[in-house]
Amino acid sequence: MADLITINVDGKDVQVPPKIQLIEALRTYAKVDTPAFCYHPDLSVAGNCRVCLVEVAGPRGFAFGIACHMQTAPGLTVKTQISSDRVKWARRGVMESLLVNHPLDCPICDKAGECTLQENYMNSGRHESRLPDDAGKQYKGGADHRFTDAKGNDRGGKKIDLGPTILLDQERCIVCSRCVRFMSEVAKEPQLAIAGRGDHAYITTFPGKPLTHGYDLNVTDVCPVGALTGKHFRFQQRVWNLKSVESIDPSDAFGANITIEYNNGRVWRLMPRRNPAVNKSWIANSTRLLYQQLAVNRLTDARVAGVDADLDAGVQAAKAAIAAAKKVALVASGHGTVEDNAALLALKDALGDKSEVFSGSWLAVGKADGIALSGDPVANRAGLAVLGLADNLDQLAQRAGEFDALVVFNHDLWGADAAKAAKLEAIPARVVLAAWNDATVAKATVAVGIRAWAEVRGTMVNSQGRIQLMHACPVLPNPALEPAWQVLAGFAGAVWASEAQAFAAAQARAARLAGLSYRAIGPMGAVLPQPALAAAGA
Amino acid sequence: MAKVIPRPDLGVWERLYIGEIVKGLMTTFGHAGKALTNPAHFPTLQYPEQQPDIPRDYRSRHRLMKRADGSPRCVACYMCSTACPARCINIVAEESPDKHIEKRPVRFEIDLLLCVFCGYCVEACPCDAIRMDTKQAILVGGDRASFVADKAKLMDWEPKDYPADDIQSQKAPGGTLNAKALEELRSGSDH
Description:
The complex is a heterodimer of chains A (538) and B (191). Chain A has 538 residues and is of the alpha+beta class. Chain A has 17 helices and 26 strands.
């Protein structure tokens, strides 16, 4: 890191890096809570909301300056709301202007509870308006929920359909331009724009063009108010009723950081979790909507020879099939966690010479989009390499005749490539552990239900070589379901008490995981040492 | 920190006990005497043949207020269920087909067995959609499910049972006593 410089905040000297935005210095280093609507750490600086203003010493004494645009420099002297009543007074004025035209529909606004405007109103708003009741915009309802201003001019709609995923409420919009900047800077497809000037400015798409982009739902996150809301979450839950756990994107090797928000045994939405080294603040729409599949078409119990059975019976049948086989093919899964694959390797050790492990995937690898997807649908492909597993799934298809039992977990072989997988039907006993009723379960002789990605705790290694944690969300469709590592360890005759023990088993096999623990990995993940370095250290 | 409540300092007369008993019995005998001379003032109620007269502003079973067209006034904002200390209100919201209304409840259920009749839901409601003025304080049911008041049950009331000159359970913007309540708020008499 560059050398730190000293700035003075509220009479106290603070060590900060040079040439970072003052708002970041205040928030991160001086620990002064600085409000902002238009500033976003992963977008460019617009400086139009003015609410982050602080007093900065200049040649003519202290003057107001916006903290988001100003950069730190040696000798900078700043007064914030902590030491300056003028800052508080000015922020109240800014808030008053912003709130003149903002409707009071917080009770039916989906953003209520996580709305920046609401939070700042509680801190620095004028709690009583100085304006007459009929000033500002007036909601008149009617077709398209139009609203008008005090002079009767049409001022926009409360329910404008911007595209397949997003609704716009122009009355709530404070024209911070975050969504416009997201679309042009991050999505690189400027589909949103500000039209009109001054008090008449409004957010719109280009005439006749909808807002359609694989990342457009991120504008609902950057929106500091409830102007842009996703159709998938509209009126589903109030956000203060949601609980959350941290997890990672299970559908892509980039491992975008997410939070799973749930209550009453159901996941209601996935939100991006900021990790500057991975996905910044963004996730793809495809990632965000994964929760919709969580409760659909689940394998909640077991199936033995096509007949439904309870989980215990399924596990017994699977154990019997493995024990009876002369040669067992074990298929590792890049859709499972490191712990799951460690359990598979433990099963290989328990079976000894009569088993062989195959790894890899038949899913096509696409191109990285540079935002939050690597294009590789196998989320833990790097984790397989860390465990020393080679990509040799095609060999399994060629040598299928040698085996008389197949163990697959969390891996839809038939769904990935039915033609290649068809050769595996030569193996008489096919044990499949799956969370969903997929094509592979249909081909299984014994299928046992396991927990899905949102319901397990474990680690995955992303395409950057960063190991990241996923936490379990209590939304099991059947409380008896076990994670894959637990079932596989059971096949091996071992009883592993927790994910931590499974992770320790993985560490015993992979030098690159040495010295790590769930606590050391933490919410931001940990970069694994390069293979050569790990080998040198080992 | 625990609050310490000092014991009352008893005098000699109170410690003697007998005098206090006589004082207590005076109340009983007083009521008995009044009832004998004037049966209309009999202090006990022959329940359940006789039902108590519950005042309108007693916090009784809830009702959902209706708009002029008979749809619920509720906009499914969850303020009542958020305020509810017993977590007895279960709301499922949906998009309203009405052009003037954004959101409406598709389900609105109150589990009256969980309800503690605190009235927070009534206070929390931003549009005076829920009131507790049905005078139904004695609830009878055969099983637990029968105590879950759904939207239909909460809206099953007749305007004639709630005359405009009756005491309302609350004063809130949007209520039938709207103008009067606002006036009181402005004059500061109700703060």
